[in-house]
Amino acid sequence: MENDIDDLLDEVEQKYVKKTTPSRNVKASPTAKSRVKPAGSGLDAAIDDILDIDLPASHTANAFQSTSKNSTLSTSGNSQSKSEQKSRCFPVYLGGSGETMGRGASMNKHACDQLRCTSCDFRICHFENMAWSRDTDYLFLRNNAPDFQKLKGKLSRKKGCRAYCCQCQWRNVLEICELRDPQLKWVCGKHPS
């Protein structure tokens, strides 16, 4: 099996990996010339050659330009300010209309207000002090969500209840509870920190 993988890698290397050489406009760094290249496959040599090429100053300046004065570089090289970072609820909570909405955590139980459905790829709608009627069905939601004017025909007033829906599922929730129903494919869609 190892020989098959090696043969496949050799074939890919021969077809797609070409040894790169610096062009006239791009000069090699002084450290690249003095660096000893390890003995190995042609792929290692090609990667080393690519890493040894210096980009013009205009490319490197744009790549690391920060978006704000307080931005930090992450280990992956992406610059992102702390205010731009987003986080998910863990665990995800649903709650009645009396519950605070926001990013939830095990110590900070808030009903998530950024829910998305992975089944229909739709943002979850929620309606305060409302409940779904028993005859609500998939086809009704598929044709009418998220338009409240169309949905209100199946909603009734119920104090303390929050009605949730996407285009394929719906729930009435009276008090804070962890989202554990396997039928609901709802996940937190990330909150701004």
From TrEMBL:
The keyword Transcription regulation does not apply. The keyword Cytoplasm applies. It comes from the Eukaryota. This is Cilia- and flagella-associated protein 418. Residues 20-32, 64-82 have a biased composition (Polar residues). Residues 20-40, 64-84 are annotated as: Disordered. Its main location: cytoplasm. Keywords: Cytoplasm. The gene is LOC101846722. It is found in: Cytoplasm; Photoreceptor inner segment. May be involved in photoreceptor outer segment disk morphogenesis. InterPro entries: CFAP418.
